[in-house]
């Protein structure tokens, strides 16, 4: 069984948003910066005025690697699979998988779109090429 994240006080809203089909980012009410991963303070100005805002789901591949040997038995059926850093249209970068694609056809700068993989009771954000 693939691992499922455990929500905590900082991430509960993020994971709840994923289960609703939304990728939520924190937006600072003081300086308007967007950030990911969830934190207690704005990484730009240090403000605590953070609110949740849905991302568009549009992103581009910053870098990626093709995994040809599963890190655990849970991922053996996915090999080869792609782990990537994607830059969201809103600015933050996050690590995710690129799915439903030929890994050899991917390239840096390629546009990708948000999708979700259901793991038990939790939806996990992933991306697919446009």
Poorly predicted spans: none
Give the strand line-up of the largest sheet. Answer: 6-5-4-7-8
Order of helices and strands: HEEEEEEEE
Mean pLDDT: 97
Q: Any idea how many domains? A: 1
Count of helix runs: 1
- The second-level CATH architecture is Beta Barrel
Short structural summary:
This protein has one domain: OB fold (Dihydrolipoamide Acetyltransferase, E2P) (Beta Barrel), CATH 2.40.50.840. The model has no long low-confidence stretch (mean pLDDT 97). The chain is mostly beta strands and 130 residues long.
Descriptive account of the structure:
There is one protein chain. The mean pLDDT is 97. Helices cover 6% and strands 41% of the residues. The longest helix has 8 residues, at 12-19. The protein has one helix at residues 12-19; strands at residues 24-28, 34-35, 50-54, 58-67, 81-88, 93-98, 111-119, 122-129. The protein has a 5-stranded antiparallel beta sheet with strand order 6-5-4-7-8, covered by helices on one side. It has a 3-stranded antiparallel beta sheet with strand order 2-1-3. The chain has 130 residues and is mainly β. A hairpin with a 4-residue loop joins β5 (81-88) and β6 (93-98). It has one domain (12-129): OB fold (Dihydrolipoamide Acetyltransferase, E2P) (Beta Barrel). It contains 1 helix and 8 strands, in the order αββββββββ. The two termini are 29 Å apart.
């Amino acid at each position: 069984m693939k691992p499922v994240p455990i929500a905590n006080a900082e991430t509960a809203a993020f994971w709840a948003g994923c289960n609703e089909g939304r990728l939520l980012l924190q937006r600072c009410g003081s300086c308007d910066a967007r950030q990911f991963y969830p934190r207690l303070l704005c990484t730009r100005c240090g403000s605590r005025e953070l609110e949740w805002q849905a991302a568009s789901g549009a992103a581009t591949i910053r870098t990626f690697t093709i995994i040809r040997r599963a890190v655990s038995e849970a991922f053996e059926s996915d090999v080869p699979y792609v782990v990537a850093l994607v830059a969201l249209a809103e600015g933050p970068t996050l690590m995710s998988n690129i799915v439903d694609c030929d890994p050899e056809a991917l390239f840096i700068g390629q546009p990708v779109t948000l999708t979700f993989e259901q793991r038990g009771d939790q939806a996990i954000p992933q991306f697919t090429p446009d």
